[in-house]
Design a protein that fits this description.
The protein has 12 helices and 11 strands. By secondary structure, the protein is an alpha/beta fold. Bound molecules: S-adenosylmethionine.
């Protein structure tokens, strides 16, 4: 592929990526080539004189190999992912933030001025950082049990110049600060689903970010138990897997959250369960 036109380079890449069974081969190929050439994706289509040459040839071949043979997620190859209005760096230290997780940010946007908020299970820090960027008045903390994920989240905060504090904790164990709200996208995949997960997920994303016992609710159950005892906490929003919303809503009601709502994602799946309780309800819980 020496001095190839972008069209020929793309056609070859699309064939390889499609043959590997990836879902969106053309989009993937365009994103990878635009990244290698350091141009916007639209320029690949509008500038016919663009060619792939010199070091870009090897770099593109390598990116296509990672995508097709190794089935690495495009976001890891690019090293970044757009989330709400920010772009976070991503690599194998943390899950690739998904579009449906933006629903958690929308819950956070409804909090009152200056509210103290914990993004629990923060991973790359995407939720915490997107919220701080949109609502600088909020006091945002992110936590995770994984030291490598926290390192990535801190790097993202520094690069984006956003003032979010990150700390290492196993759910709420040892977390002394009080919060008005907790948002979390915890691991919620059932062990039984292992075999059906895409290679992108199984081979590359951290397994501690994904699995949570036989029914996928092991982490959420523990978390809701811990949350019940938190005096100041008025709002909890939890991302859940398909079919889990009813059980999680019940657990939240049991922890004293009188109002429980569910938000659907773009695919119509009940994706985020939001529990709210007033001060009086909290002291009775
Ligand atoms: C599904 S990922 C979510 C990452 C990020 N919030 C996002 O939405 O892209 C779950 C995260 O929970 C963390 N985690 C797993 N078990 C945990 C625990 N017991 N306490 C705190 N964090 C945990 C994992 O390390 C992982 O970063």
């Amino acid at each position: 592929m020496i001095g190839t036109s972008t069209r020929d380079a793309l056609d070859g890449a699309v064939t390889a990526i499609a043959a590997a069974g990836c879902e969106s081969p053309r989009l993937d190929a365009e994103l990878l080539l635009a990244h290698v050439l350091g141009v916007g994706r639209e320029r690949l289509l509008t500038e016919r004189e663009l060619t792939v040459e010199g070091p870009a040839v090897r770099a593109f071949q390598d990116a296509v190999r990672r995508r097709s043979i190794e089935r690495e997620p495009v976001a890891y190859i690019l090293g970044r992912r757009g989330f709400r209005r920010i772009e976070v760096a991503v690599d194998s230290r943390a899950l690739v933030p998904r579009p449906e997780t933006e629903l958690l940010v929308e819950v956070g946007l409804r909090l009152s001025n200056g509210a103290r908020l914990l993004d629990l299970c923060t991973g790359s820090g995407a939720v915490a950082l997107a919220l701080k960027e949109e609502r600088p008045d909020l006091q945002v903390v992110g936590s995770d049990v994984s030291a490598p994920a926290l390192q990535l989240a801190q790097e993202n905060a520094r690069r984006l110049g956003l003032e979010v504090r990150f700390m290492q904790a196993d759910l709420l164990a040892g977390v002394e600060d009080e919060f008005d709200a907790i948002l979390a996208n915890p691991p919620y995949v059932a062990e039984s689903e292992r075999a059906s997960l895409a290679p992108e997920i199984m081979r590359h994303e951290p397994h501690e970010a994904l699995f949570a016992g036989a029914d996928g609710l092991a982490v959420i159950r523990l978390l809701i138990e811990q949350i019940g005892a938190r005096e100041r906490l008025g709002t909890v929003a939890l991302e859940v897997g398909a079919g889990q919303a009813g059980a999680v809503a019940e657990l939240l009601r049991g922890a004293g959250f009188a109002t429980v709502d569910t938000e659907r994602d773009l695919a119509g799946i009940e994706r985020v369960v939001v529990g709210e309780r007033s001060l009086g309800e909290r002291s009775r819980a």
